[in-house]
């Protein structure tokens, strides 16, 4: 089965300020704020929803096809993807833009100031979806360019291709009707509990109505695990214990990688979610979204410690 990953590719540029922001902001001058923070250097990491999902999938010996858009500064990221055997055929380059980037400054109190430049993500990826083999494909639509998030589910639906819809931080960009149409008929709608509330508010649908509109609803609950709903039947999925919780950023994308791997193996959605739970644990044990690693032997051992025998 070929997995197609619609989502963003981005650079995370992380800076640390060795003091508290509050010590350098004058409350009575907040209406004319003009501040400069001298940071302790800059660390650049590879990120974006599609990149994160494809990376962990590659650790699971599965290569996805990324459908995304990047800018003129993408060379190093391109080399990394190809190093892991990840297809770049679905990535569009916009020569006049930079690749999407988040500029994150954290102070000593763990407060953050973030600037996000969408760059090339302002444009659709324009992948020729007719190249997809309808009988051997699985799609996931994660946060990216809005028109891709509307058009790709429509194509999958019209061609009988199962897909996962994962709107994430792009939920506010949709109208209620656009959002409802995008996930209608999905094999899986996946969100965290807060995002599910946002979808309910935007679409004016109840949780039961949302469950009736898709085959499965998966709700992730952080350290409490996740829940799978299917036409009134609810199953709770536990977590794989972490050795240390260092950084939860990227755990959701790693979870989706395990979910996709399980589905590509022919596993039930519930069993695929267990693979996702193990992937998420590896992610939280490292800073960053693509810094974790494991061998299949290590993964299998951890899975079986948490959930029992892993078959297939």
From TrEMBL:
The keyword Kinase applies. InterPro entries: Carboh/pur_kinase_PfkB_CS, PfkB_dom, Ribokinase-like. Gene3D superfamilies: 3.40.1190.20. GO terms for molecular function: kinase activity. The keyword Kinase applies. Residues 39-291 form the Carbohydrate kinase PfkB domain. It comes from the Bacteria. Keywords: Kinase, Transferase. This is Carbohydrate kinase.
